[in-house]
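Dear support,

We are seeing what looks like truncated structure output for some complexes. This example has three components. We would appreciate it if you could run it in full and send us the complete token output so we can diff it against ours.
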Amino acid sequence: MTASHATWRRALLSLALLVSASFVGVFLLGGGRAEVYPSGNSTEVDATSLTSQDSPAAANQLAGGRTLFVENCSTCHGIDASGGDRAPPLLGVGGATVDLWLSSGWMPLAEPTAEPERKPAKFDRAQVLEIVRYVTSLAPALPGDPGVPSGLDISHANVAEGFSMFALNCAPCHTITGAGDALAGGIQAPPLHGVTKTMVWEAIRTGPGNMPRFGPGTISPAQVVDIVGYVVKDIQRPVSPGGLSLGGVGPVAEGFVGLFVGVGLCLLAALWVGDRAETEEDGEHDGHDGPEGPDGDEDGEGGDDHRELAHA
Amino acid sequence: MIDALFTWFDERLGISGSGRKMLNKIFPDHWSFLIGEVALYSFIVLLGTGVFLTLYFVPSSKVVIYEGTYAPLRGQPVSEAFASTLNLSFAVRDGLLMRQMHHWAANIFVGSIVVHMLRIFFTGAFRKPRELNWIVGSTLLILAIFNGFLGYSLPDDLVSGTGIRISFSIVESIPLIGSYAAFFLFGGNFPGNSIVPRFYILHVLVLPAIMVALIGAHLGMLVRQKHTQFPGRGHTPRNVVGSPLWPTFIAKTTGFMFLTVAVTGILSALFQINPVWLYGPYVPYKVSYAVQPDWYMGWLDGALRIMPSWEIVGFGHMIPNVFFPAILLPGITFGVLQMWPFIEARLTGDHAEHQILDRPRDRPKRTAFGAAVFSFYFVLLGASATDVLANYLSISLNVVLTSFRFLAIAVPLIVFPVTYRICKEMQSVPTAGQRKRANIVLRSAVGGYTTVRADQRPGDAVPRVDPLPLDEDVEFVPAMAGIPVVSDDSPAQSRPEEPAPDTSDRPRGGIFRIPRDYR
Amino acid sequence: MATKTARVETITGSSHMPDDTEAAAGSGEPGASPRRVRIPVASVRADAPQFQIAAKNPRRAEIVAGSGFLMAAVGFAGFGAAYWQNYSNFWLAITFSVGFGGLGYGMVIWGKYLMPRGPFSESRHSLAPTQAQREVFIEDFASRGKVAVERRGFLVKALGLASGILGVVLAFPFIRSLGPLPGKTLRQTAWRRGSYLVDITGRRIKTGDLEVGGFTTVFPPDDIGGAYSQTMLIRVDTPPASGYLTPPPQFAKQRATWAPQGYIAFSKVCTHAGCPVGLYQELTKKMLCPCHQSLFDVTDAAIPIFGPAPRPLPQLPLYIDDDGYFRAQDGYDEPVGPGYWERGND
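Here is the complete output from our reference environment:
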């Protein structure tokens, strides 16, 4: 027909293409969930070397760690790690704490006044371990210091036991899907996606920030491995055979989809189905004494056919 | 053959007489009359998928050791209800699809009831003679919400179990009878072993049976009283304008039913709902953060959250905090909702019959009141996600909660005058809400500009054709395509109250003809 | 009786009046059966626009609708194949939706474009009967009732007695037997004087099991996993010189020895709606309820400082026995969990 009709039809066609493209895209994204949150460090350096602290070969590493510490940490924590006005002392905090705060990207802070937040770690694994080695060499560890786990093996973790312990001790803050949530007073329980098994282990044992600290008296070494196994194997790669997991926040997201997508699509279909098909003869070109006439054609499906038929 | 069969039934039941009238039942041609059908059809989806689910679901709290395919729960003690839900999701073919469709259909069901009810409210369709149907409809809404909650609780998972715990506290909070009612309903102190089987029989038999009966009454009253209609050309209080049941409406509505089913299916394909295996079985001392009920209970949850920490204690008795948001608020809500037709009639003094719908802008007070009340519940719904909002917006949870306390009061107070103003403004613009035809600006080769009106699109203009009365006298008799229609040559005699039908200049040869008489 | 007959006649005489639709057209001969009373259809032209279909090109509309049905056939066949091959939920659901979508699309096109596009109208009458009809009904109802019921007062009373007893008796199976009476179960938990604190596996908790800033969920040994006896044992701090955490002033005397060696125990059942208060924020020393975000201050006798909870969490008095195990000095001194009518001030 006329030019405007062709334009109109083209617009609808491209809209349809866009919708189907996003549909496919969303699906690929959903399928690729595991890629969105890569788990495990790319370079998992074995931390066993840390145990041999007195070997002569360690002197070099100690120097390297010192350099990194002085360059990146000493401004706030003091050159001898004894703390400063805006940062706590690091003497005796233990290797696990240092390792966790560095590999989670909480430290070093973006600005000296900023709040710690998840960001890509500034140092690679070897550098982190160098700093850990340096800081732990400054003072003897306090009793109960878990140390950096060496050779953490979760391949034989009992995920069922881990799930049970997770639901009891972790889910109250991190949510049962590990999505994380806001606690009172601006505190956040961070999401558990994209953290390494070592970080999970260290967080349980050291209780960073407001997180409680779970020692071997409450969660046995085997149970910690179970929990770490559950987090890394299942929380981070959830079984979602039903489609997009909607952020793992449960009925809030589901209700949103149900109302705005579900009921919305039904209403769009109703818009299309409910109105009388009109032909040009039906209408006079001025819109007087307008009844609550058909007032829209943003039909969900088959919109262009609808128009073509009426105007063919 | 079919003829003989029909005659057999007709002689015994007398279908032809009333059935003939039924064929001519008119359904208004306006999309908003289909919202209730969304509810009806999602209810049918619920029944269909629900029957499938009952074949595999085991309504029992008995603890068994899970031995299914889902590794993180293998070897764990779970209730039979939970184990069978997992089995349904992982081992039964189609099981997950049916579960997800059932849950999505429930969300759409309640949602479409609410939207339907808003349409009825804002257009004044509840007025005399339809007060009864409004009461039946709002009862259906209450039952739908309640049954949705029961169904959500059946899998006995960690998230829904927490909801049951809260509902026990809510029942317990009723003055005088609360603790007895809770003990009788749950078969003893929380958690007990009776919840799942009792909720099950309520969910699959008692409430659905009541709802089917009420839906029947709802539709029966609709047929008897006939539809309301919007004001429009040829629309009078003494007629209904639209499409006849047979064949036009049947075709459209059946198609619409299939589309509703398709929407439910699309949601089930794309979005996972209620993955109970990720939540694990309910254990009274375990809990997850970010627990919410389904959205239709969300406003109650939001009310519980933003309620100040008040409690009435005295004379050896207590009215607990949860009573106010979870018993009193829904009590007032549903009480006012049910009684609204009478409340409004009392306020306006309008006791006349109404068959023509109001346009919301013509009733600014009702519209503003409805919008304000609705916004209040919408704020409450938002308040049920305080923690999730605080997390996503990185605001302090305390700030979010305090803001919702403030918003729950402020938003309705703002919405009312704003809506009222908008209604008043729209009243003064007769063409408000009508689509305007586009103008196209053309630029000529030499640089001049001219304006022409765009081609008309459907919906641009108002139908020019008057409704054709379809009472006892006019018949649809489909003719074979190509056979010319017998022109009617008896003397023209217009009906007094109907304007002469428009004789268009289109060529003859429609596929329907009208016989002169009907026997 | 005479008046009544007369009234009935009036009704009969006026009974045509509600049926005035067709009569208004003036064509119905008296004596004709109602079905035959109709106006001639001459006023409606066979080629009236209302009877035309909306599609200008019916063939094309037919193809479109038909392709919808064909799409449905493909979709349903795909659904069958997906079921047979046990494909994922996505393929089952998407083929299912394509099937129903195609079906719906075709049906709507059919109904919308290939059937008379109207509009048509049907007439509507008020359902309200005339005042006279109503009066006759009421009169009949009342007079028959007078004969049948009013003189038989004894029968009415006897019937009422029987149904009354039935109603009362039915209340037992359908209400009373549904559950036990609450009794004392809401007032007391399984915690007793001397109860060991055990974790979910039944292991007794002893000093040193928890790190500073750690917590664990404990139960009395005879109610492990109990919904009401669940208790949060928190190691808040290293203890002051007295060996006990200092309670807030209002409990200075009563609770002086309830929290030995920096350990303190509160009921895990929220006083608001009964959820497990399992969120312990270690630095701020607050417990948060996950359901409705009530915040309890652990260092201040778990008094709610935010959110809807109206009462503090009850505190379990602890002591450490000679073997270093934690035990309860006594049960909770107030009902745990949410409020209820009989609870009163205690």
